[in-house]
Amino acid sequence: GASMFTIEHLFDASLVTLVDEGDPALREDVKIRVTEDYVSVEQYDAMHDETKTVTLSMSQLRDLQAALNLPEGSYRLKPE
Predict the structure, then answer these.
(1) 3-state percent breakdown (helix, strand, coil) of the chain, nearest 5
(2) pTM for the full predicted model
(3) CA angle (39 as vertex; 56, 16 as ends), nearest 5
(4) What pLDDT is recorded for position 70?
């Protein structure tokens, strides 16, 4: 199905919001803030009435990108 997201370019970051348009919507919107130094992902947790945030350094984000294309195992990426 179609997916919806928004992009806002702020002074110090870009903000991407991913919207779950399922019927019914299964999850709250996901907000991803991208700065020069880090990426944070946040989502409201209705069960606990709080917003949960995970922050990744740029090197962790590069590792995640690489991991999505590799089989199971343990890896060490060499700096470029």
Answers:
(1) 10, 40, 45
(2) 0.80
(3) 145
(4) 87
